[in-house]
Amino acid sequence: MINLEGKKAVVTGGTSGIGLETARLLLQLGADVALCSRDAERVKATTQQLQEAYPARRVLGQACDVLDAEQVRSFAEQVRQSFGAVDALINNAGQGRVSTFASTTDEEWETELRLKFFSIIHPTRAFLPLLEQSSEPAIVCVNSLLAAQPEPHMVATSAARAGIKNLVRSLASEFSVKGIRVNGILLGLVDSGQWRRRYEAREDRSQSWEQWAGDLAKRKHIELGRLGRPEEAARAIVFLASSASSYTTGSHIDVSGGVSRYA
Ligand code: NDP
């Protein structure tokens, strides 16, 4: 059992899906949690909800776009004032882009590459001084299996994800002297905000979520026959964020239900 009593963690994109379940699990295991996302109302509601569920922990929420360096710096300053050191930074905020090479404009390429890289670069830079004050610091980047197994209908996201896999390895090397471990998870299809949004936009309006998600799992050849649950991703994230993975750095855990076709 992982015990995070006295630990402090930061989760970007902590108001929905995987980020929210990660925040919940961190609190459940004893950590104080700071979270952010862009929607101020959602941040307020989520922070309140988590604080009520875990009254013995500290929950800090701030509206912050991870693509805005100044907002991220201000979030980190708020966390410094409340928490001091940070033991784990979970770079989770983001979403995928569905488009082929033919349908992706230069501007869309730039937007996607910027989202994937700077959603990690800004928080990592801003929280580095706080991570350096921890005795067991770790960074976890939420990545996609597309990094290793690209899909032509998500060409820009796939290419960007491959870059992130590479970046995780470089950060692990550069930060090893500081004792900061850097790892990622490779997700397949997880039932969260982005898939619910795609379901809402479905063509066949007669399909229920269960039918739609079941067909998707078949079409994508998911060995375990279903989409992943956000809490299944959260468990892998928390493992990498905690000292339970103390001898692991520069690596990625596959959380894809067997979608990966490489050994
Ligand atoms: P959700 O849409 O449920 O959650 C995304 C969270 O990120 C929300 O809290 C959202 O809040 C926040 N967010 C998005 N953009 C920003 C931003 N620029 N700055 C700050 N917060 C932001 O999606 P998931 O839980 O599925 O996604 C979590 C991560 O997992 C994402 O990086 C996604 O790309 C990745 N992933 C997910 C997969 C899946 O199948 N679900 C597969 C592969 C990767 P708000 O909109 O208010 O900012």
From TrEMBL:
<comment type="similarity">
    <text>Belongs to the short-chain dehydrogenases/reductases (SDR) family.</text>
</comment>
<dbReference type="Pfam" id="PF13561">
    <property type="entry name" value="adh_short_C2"/>
</dbReference>
<dbReference type="InterPro" id="IPR002347">
    <property type="entry name" value="SDR_fam"/>
</dbReference>
<dbReference type="InterPro" id="IPR036291">
    <property type="entry name" value="NAD(P)-bd_dom_sf"/>
</dbReference>
<feature type="domain" description="Ketoreductase">
    <location>
        <begin position="7"/>
        <end position="212"/>
    </location>
</feature>
<dbReference type="InterPro" id="IPR057326">
    <property type="entry name" value="KR_dom"/>
</dbReference>
<protein>
    <submittedName>
        <fullName>SDR family oxidoreductase</fullName>
    </submittedName>
</protein>
<dbReference type="InterPro" id="IPR050259">
    <property type="entry name" value="SDR"/>
</dbReference>
